[in-house]
Known about the structure:
With about 200 residues, this protein is an all-alpha fold. The chain has a domain at about 60-190: Tetracycline Repressor, domain 2, CATH 1.10.357. About 70% of the residues lie in helices and about 0% in strands. It has helices at about 10-25, 35-40, 45-50, 55-75, 85-100, 105-110, 120-140, 150-165, 175-190. It is elongated. The chain starts with 8 loop residues before the first helix and ends in a 10-residue tail after the last helix.
Amino acid sequence: MARPQAADYADKREAILDMAAELFARRGFAGASLADLAEASGYSKSSLYHYFGDKQAILCQAMQAHLAELTAIADTAMDVTLPPEQQLRRFARATMRAYATARWKHRLLVNETASLAPVEQRQVVAAQRALVQRVADLLERLRPAANVAERWPNAMLFYGMLNFTYTWYDPAGAVTPEALADRAVTVFLDGFGAKKTAAE
């Protein structure tokens, strides 16, 4: 008979994912063991198996949870009733807030995709490409390109401005995630010397 789930099962599972994301991001997936995770989280190794099948499953589900959040952000921000630039700013702000609050999951997504099993890698890469494509479509509506081949590089350049802030940005510093996102959009669309656009 299957072991029944406790009322706080989902909360504990999410807490383990958060702890694992930080551990794997700090030490590297290959350099961190389930024993390390058990010690860091306060759970026994056997308890961890109640929530996840193995270490690989934890990595995959941490990435998938982060991608699900980013996809939900795009769904909300890219409201077709709004002007394209406003959609882009809403998307950038919400994405930077997510990066600031889920920095370890984001670091995993950027650095550890190759540690996934091949099927899982394809799923994660497909989800990432779908997000980039949505940005490419939005940029095309905002600034129609003469050359269709520019759409994907433009989207990748914009995403690159946001994605790699995890290497240097301190969300507790003087610049808020929203202000940084606004600056990224302004620099991307209008150049470094452009004046800041007032927040919505």
